[in-house]
């Protein structure tokens, strides 16, 4: 059964029209339509499923249009800028929204968001609103970032409802910059990162426009052997391959969690259901990739979408050298995750009247709490906080 994707707009042309209202082409000489674009996005919000990038663009643009000292007070202008900017940054990097214990600076680094945005967001939230000069510049830089990281990839050539052959061809073309290994070696680290982000955004666009995009991308990466260096020998390190592919795969997984589930299942299927032994270089590479996704800190945020039970079952049903090692690694990592970290600062004194609430929680609830980073305090101290004197 085909997967149904709901969007706030009826067709891609409507989204392109709003984009052109926010970012008029250089040759455009007509009236300013930014306020109309903001109104359209506001109407879309009533329907739901509006991407954060679209909403943030409208909020920042509306703040710029509000910047009129003849009609509005300086305080209200600063407040509007601050609110729009804070919502833009928070929607991208807030760890509570994304459910992972990582700092906002770490999330910003993953997304290619300037660290200064996080600092300014903190200042605007917890201190006095920044000056108008700072806020105006931040709003403009934010709109530029949104163009580079979202709007530039919303185009007419999106594979909207195309055939699987067309989607596969588009994905293959998008992956070419990453596959140029020798060329990637000769460019700077910053340029390599920018190239990876550009490829990832194009892949996200393809997956947005085609319901089969995530599945085809995963199949192409695994069946085509694109994740494994062609000249790799047994025992060779996979570090360079991880560095090259991680930014691309992680950015796609952020927008399409189903992609990572499909990728890991395809990887473990390729590993488990083929004749392989300890001397098989491809089997070793597949094992290292799956172990990397399920055990490394680089994938801690993303692997919540993976099916750990499926990987373990595949390993158990097709035991050989690499699946046995993989099953042991995944189980070991799962055991670590189920042990909540205990900090000395958070411990409370043990008294006879204390109650251990973990005994009263259902087992399934306890497992879920641990899975998402929560843990029980050793014991709950039910003593009163103070005593009221009768004098």
From TrEMBL:
This protein's GO CC annotations: Las1 complex; preribosome, large subunit precursor
InterPro entries registered for this protein in UniProt: Las1 (IPR007174)
Listed GO biological process terms: maturation of 5.8S rRNA; maturation of LSU-rRNA
GO function terms (MF aspect): endonuclease activity
PANTHER family: RIBOSOMAL BIOGENESIS PROTEIN LAS1L
Name of this protein: Cell morphogenesis protein Las1
Protein source organism: Penicillium bovifimosum
